[in-house]
From TrEMBL:
It comes from the Eukaryota. It comes from Caenorhabditis remanei (Caenorhabditis vulgaris). The lineage of its organism: Eukaryota, Metazoa, Ecdysozoa, Nematoda, Chromadorea. This is PDZ domain-containing protein. Coiled coil: none annotated.
Length: 326
């Protein structure tokens, strides 16, 4: 999806960096406090490998700490001691590294868990379970799904981290980027169908992109309703959708289109010329020759040059001597 930066207001950016989110969207039950214990070798951790915002949200950590740490976790304690500033964090890490002994690093963080299971009564009208069953064996099954409400937060310098595709008026998550800084990390799976974004029901990719972009620009937070296959039949259909690729028209350069148009105009004015013969090499009259001649018990093949072709593109020629083919 689009990688263009969002035009969020400076006030909104400062609020997010400080860890202040709308309380009507990010409720207290979505915020979990957890402690991670990490086995560290001597001389670690390196304070330079950690970066935080002014609100103590982690924006950079060593690669071997992801997981358990997640992008923009709110750092609260280091080995049980509260830290409220970047300087306190760096001093704590420096003391641990200076001992030059193997040790366990205990980090207490506050994390927003924004995935909630919803029942069938809360799903939008474009959900599969609300559509009538079809006798078409290729139609999408109407059973075998779970539904979730996902709240995505556009943290400082984060990225969306998904690509989507449309099939049968349904938009599916085609690929995910679970790297550090991905907004959708841990929240969306491959094959999830996006049914609704905020107040907009989703039917195509363009609407999906517009709804995500406008929602993030408005308040930095969007709410998705997703449909996730949970049974064998629905999973099989989703896998077939992900493996299906539409054939795109090849891009033809402008100068090639103009050259073809000029050549067509020439043919319409002067007529079409005779096509070149399939025989190649020195010009010689083969009108009385045969493909195979027999002389003194020797078979001589007369070769006819041809262009290289793909055998898979050939089709069988019917036998017109057979009355069935007439």
């Amino acid at each position: 999806m689009s990688a263009e930066p969002l035009n969020m207001s400076a006030e909104k950016r400062r609020a997010f960096r400080a860890g202040r989110f709308p309380e009507d969207i990010i409720t207290k039950d979505m915020i979990r406090e957890m402690t991670c214990s990490i086995d560290c070798p001597p001389g670690t951790p390196n304070p330079k490998e950690f970066k935080v915002t002014e609100g103590m949200l982690l924006t950079k950590v060593p690669a071997d700490m992801t997981p358990p740490l997640e992008y923009c976790d709110h750092l609260l304690k280091i080995n049980g001691t509260s830290v409220t500033t970047k300087k306190e964090m760096q001093e704590a890490f420096f003391k641990l590294a200076k001992t030059n002994k193997p040790h366990y690093l205990s980090l207490t963080v506050r994390r927003i868990i924004s995935v909630e299971r919803i029942d069938a009564r809360s799903v939008p009208s474009n959900a599969s379970i609300k559509k009538p069953p079809s006798k078409d064996k290729y139609a999408k099954p109407t059973k075998g799904y779970l539904y979730y409400k996902v709240v995505l937060i556009y943290f400082p310098r984060s990225k969306l981290g998904i690509n989507v595709k449309s099939y049968g008026n349904v938009v599916y998550v085609e690929s995910t980027d679970c790297s550090w800084g991905s907004t959708t990390r841990r929240f969306l799976y491959l094959g999830d169908a996006i049914l609704k974004i905020d107040d907009t029901e989703i039917l195509d990719v363009q609407t999906t992109q517009s709804a995500i972009r406008s929602g993030f620009q408005k308040n930095g937070i969007i709410t998705m309703i997703i449909e996730r296959a949970s049974e064998q039949v629905s999973n099989k259909f989703v896998r077939s959708v992900l493996s299906f690729n539409k054939i795109r028209d090849p891009f033809v350069p402008v100068d090639v289109v103009k050259s073809c148009a000029d050549q067509l105009a020439h043919y319409e004015k002067h007529g079409f010329v005779e096509p070149a013969p399939i025989f190649k090499g020195p010009t010689k009259d083969y009108s009385s020759a045969k493909r195979v001649t027999v002389a003194q018990n020797l078979v001589v093949n007369k070769k006819i040059a041809s262009e290289v072709f793909n055998p898979d593109s050939l089709s069988a020629v019917p036998d017109w001597n057979d009355p069935k083919n007439r």
